[in-house]
Amino acid sequence: MIEPINGVALRGELSARYLPMILECDAIHEQLKAEAIRLKDQFIQDARDEGKLLYRSVQVKTNREGSVSIVWTRIIFSDKPGGGKRQRQEVIKKGRDSHTYNPNAVIRKADYWLQQLFHQYEPKFAILRESLVMNMKARKQLLEIQRRVNANPPV
To answer: With a threshold of 0.85, does the pTM exceed it?
Structure first.
């Protein structure tokens, strides 16, 4: 994430007033990320409690800039050379128009217990996805305003 202007680089009181708001956005971002990880772990535990093979899962990914993605994955099994099975996760595409996954993309032809878990967790993940995006947009706007005000203090 781009760091806010602070310390000796601050030029004026107005620029300094943006700093707590940007830091609050950072704290909210971390709280949303922690909630996403908690829900992911709870989903996996609920699936294990069913005693079934989990062939759909959720990942919470963080990229280099600190942005968080919550994605559904498909677990694919393939044969290893010399016997045995290898498993890998393939990200299921969500689409661009929404923060919510289409159930057909994730649970079409899935067992009933997995459909139930998807419908229980996906609305919560969708709210977190949207909240993360909106929070990062607000932070980005605050940073931009802080930089403009700091570059040309009005007072």
So the answer is: yes
